[in-house]
Specification:
The chain contains 4 helices and 5 strands. With about 130 residues, it is α+β, with helices and mostly antiparallel strands. It has a single domain, classed as Heat Shock Protein 90, CATH 3.30.565. Strands 1-2-3-5-4 form a 5-stranded antiparallel sheet. α1 runs antiparallel to α2 and α2 runs antiparallel to α3.
């Protein structure tokens, strides 16, 4: 778990840290990097509260499944499942990418006022 500034630089750092951690674990990083990039960007864009950071957590379970969690201080802004019909919509594309790369994803209300957006990637899905 790491706290990152709710800035574009913090979002970029989240992706780089994910790449490094997965290399240390000997895991391919491409799906996770895309997921982290989108969730971190959303935390910066939609979940930012001045003076508050966002948190990135990466976990591998015993079976090798990866769980990515991004927690931000805007529990009042819960992401919605993107409307797959509205292809020209100006927002929601990032969550479509998360849906494409993850086996499962969702939102948990964290202790107020926070929320955690999470995604899971099965070990076989993470193989190149």
């Amino acid at each position: 778990m790491v706290q990152l500034s709710a800035t574009r630089r913090g979002a970029r750092l989240a992706r780089l840290l994910t790449e490094r951690q997965l290399a240390d674990w000997g895991r391919p990083s491409e799906p996770a990097e895309h997921i982290v990039a989108e969730l971190a960007a959303n935390a910066v864009l939609h979940g930012r509260v001045p003076g508050r950071d966002f948190r990135l957590t990466l976990r591998l379970d015993a079976a090798g499944a990866l769980r990515i969690e991004v927690t931000d201080p805007r529990g009042d802004r819960i992401p919605r499942i993107p409307d797959l019909v509205a292809e020209e919509a100006e927002s929601g594309r990032g969550l479509r990418l998360v849906m494409a790369y993850a086996d499962r994803w969702g939102v948990d209300r964290a202790p107020l006022p926070c929320k955690t957006v999470w995604a899971e990637v099965a070990p076989d899905r993470a193989d190149p």
